[in-house]
Structures are given as C-alpha cells and as structure tokens.
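Private note to self, pasted from the team thread so I don't lose it. Backbone tokens:
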C-alpha cells in the first residue's frame, strides 16, 4: 500500500473526518508511514547547519518561575542531555533538580497507582497518555505558557492520544529494533526471524531484551505476521510459544544498562532502542555496534512530556516544557540521546551525521514497515504471558 498523501490527510484532518485513532493506530502501516514521511524523517528535508555541543546561555527566568527553586522529574534513565539540565538549573537558579528513573511505562504507571507523588514532570510513551488522563494523573496544559510549541512540526500534533493537545508535548521518537556487535555475530541480523535463530544459537546467553512488555511483544507478533497491537488470544498464544522458546537463551531483561553489556561483550545481540548507539559507535573499541529495523516490521514510538496533576512546582514545569523546545536546546537533546526530534527548527542544531543516519531518522523505504502502538498494557492475557516469560529467562 502506498503512503497516504499528506495534503489529502491535512485536508481531511481540517474537515474533522478522521477518527482520533485513524492516523497512528487504526490506519496501521500506511498511516504511520505517511505520518513519518510528512515529518521529513529523511535527512534530505532537514536544514543544513553545524551541530552544537550545548545550549546557548539565556537570560535568567527566576522571576518567571514564581520563586520556585526545586524541580522533580520522573523519566527514563539517561534521557536528558546533561548540558541541558545544567543550563536549566543555572537559568532558573535551582537549588535542587531531582531526576528519578523508571525502566518502562508499566513501572511508571504502577508507581503512580501505588501512590507515588511529588513529581512535576514525566515522559510516558504517547499511547499511555489517555490512560493517565483517565486515572487523574495528569493536568491540562496551558499552551499559552509554552510558546515554543510553535516549533513542533504540525504532523506531531492533534493525534489520537491527545487530539486537542491538552495533556502532552511531544518529546522525541524512535523505533524498536535489533542492536548487535558486528564482530561478535556471524552476519548482521536484518529480520526478527534471524534474531530468533541467533538468540537460540550463536548468541545464546548473550542476548538482551529491554524490560518493556510492549516492545518485547513486537518481536514474536511481527515475526508471525500479526499486528504488534494484537490482543487476539490465538495470536498471543502463538507469540507465547516463541517467547518461551527463546527465554532460556536470554542473558537479561535490561532497559537501562544494555549498552554496558554490549560494550563489555557480555551481550552481542539486543532487542532495544537506538539511544546507546551514539556512544558505542564513538568508542573505537565498540565502533562495530550497529542497529537494524527488522524487515517484517516493527514499532514506531513517540515519547511525550506531561505535567503531573499535583505538580508541586507548576511554574518551573511550564518553564521546562518551554525550555526543552527551544531549537538549540532540542537539537542538543537529539545529539545526546540519539532519538529523532519532532522540531524542524531544531534540526539546524543536529549533527548532520545523525540526520543522515537511517536508524535515527527512518528513510522512506522503511516507513511502510513501521506500526504505531495502542495501549495494550491492561490486556490480562498479555500480562500473564509476560510474567511467565520473565520467569523462564536464563533457564
């Protein structure tokens, strides 16, 4: 199927004829491909400019933050450029910037459901936003206090998880795929089928998967030719067989330090994300590290910034949301974490090598194989399989 024409899509959206799920989820491969193509995911549409190692200093905004001097963030580990944290602390004269981490969206939700509080900002993956709204974890955003949202490409706005842009601001996007050490594998894995056979064979005991139920289910479901969002019992049972078959061969589930396992050669194969790739490639000892988008297709995901319902420092929270989308600040984020920015203006500050890297900004020929996610975290069959799978890891 050919990607949907962007102009036609925009006209439909303006006329209100698309459902809130039709662009990302229900539209399936075609909708996601059109969406990504519209963003200028390929480097050819990105402005050419030199990269920056850090943000340019700006006048202090302490008065605008209402005298607040502490800020509490709940986020994935290593997901903010350290230079940006330091600039934010300096700009707003912060006495304390607390950065707590979670390994996956399920952990984030479970902690909140268990009563975790006191956080200002979090960064859930987009499909989890509606559920967080329903449970009262998030507050509506006053976009007039976040003027830098003007830099976010319109393609990333008004999507099914937040059709009126009231509860989240896009953070960045990426894919779930296969990382590997080239010198430790016999051939570069380019498919889930190869990943499956290698994990049970030459990479047995040296394969890691991220500790994220939604991402791991992508592997067996796409291998079988099903939607990664499947909740069909028969399809899930087939996926279960594959997961239980591979579980004894896994070294670990690890969302936070799998790059260390790759660097030490403890792991040669990983189901994961592109973020660690930059540091691994930059080190001569691990420059053979690579990433592939499996040919059967995989997950396209987008992470978001949200403000917690009882954020103790709402003024600083708004300042953060605006600060992080200053083009130079946002460009520094992509240069640091290796995930694609949703801001065209920020691309002026992104290293050209990253803009040209198909593992970070998916090229046009890869887009049709990408599928967006729905929130399937509450499906009990999936949960049961996940728990059984985890219990079998490593034998």
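Design output:
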């Amino acid at each position: 199927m050919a990607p949907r024409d962007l102009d036609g899509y925009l006209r439909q959206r303006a006329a209100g004829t698309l459902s809130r799920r039709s662009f990302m989820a229900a539209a399936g491969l075609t909708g996601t491909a059109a969406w990504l193509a519209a963003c200028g995911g390929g480097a050819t549409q990105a402005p050419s400019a030199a990269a920056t190692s850090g943000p340019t200093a700006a006048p202090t905004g302490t008065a605008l933050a209402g005298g607040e001097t502490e800020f509490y963030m709940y986020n994935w580990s290593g997901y903010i450029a350290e230079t940006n944290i330091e600039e934010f602390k300096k700009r707003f004269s912060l006495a304390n910037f607390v950065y707590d981490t979670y390994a996956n969206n399920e952990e984030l939700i479970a902690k909140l459901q268990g009563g975790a509080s006191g956080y200002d900002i979090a960064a859930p993956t987009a499909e989890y936003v509606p559920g967080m709204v329903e449970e009262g974890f998030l507050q509506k955003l006053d976009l007039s206090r976040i003027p830098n949202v003007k830099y976010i490409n319109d393609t990333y706005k008004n999507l099914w998880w937040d059709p009126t842009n009231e509860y989240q601001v896009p953070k960045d996007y990426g894919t779930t795929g296969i990382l590997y050490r080239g010198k430790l594998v016999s051939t570069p894995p380019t498919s889930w089928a190869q990943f499956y056979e290698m994990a049970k064979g030459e990479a047995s005991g040296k394969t890691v998967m991220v500790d994220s139920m939604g991402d791991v289910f992508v592997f067996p479901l796409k291998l079988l030719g099903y939607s990664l969002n499947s909740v069909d019992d028969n399809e899930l049972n087939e996926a279960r067989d594959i997961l239980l078959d591979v579980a004894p061969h896994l070294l670990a589930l690890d969302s936070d330090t799998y790059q260390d396992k790759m660097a030490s050669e403890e792991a040669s194969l990983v189901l994961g994300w592109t973020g660690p790739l930059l540091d691994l490639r930059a080190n001569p000892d691990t420059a053979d590290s690579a990433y592939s988008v499996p040919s059967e297709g995989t997950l396209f995901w987008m992470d978001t910034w949200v403000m917690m319902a009882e954020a103790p420092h709402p003024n600083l929270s708004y300042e953060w949301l605006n600060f992080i989308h200053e083009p130079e600040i946002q460009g520094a984020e992509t240069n640091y974490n290796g995930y694609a920015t949703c801001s065209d203006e920020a691309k002026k500050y992104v290293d050209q090598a990253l803009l040209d890297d198909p593992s970070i900004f998916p090229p046009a020929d890869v887009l049709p194989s990408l599928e967006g996610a729905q929130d399937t975290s509450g499906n009990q069959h999936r949960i049961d399989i996940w728990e059984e799978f985890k219990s079998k890891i490593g034998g």
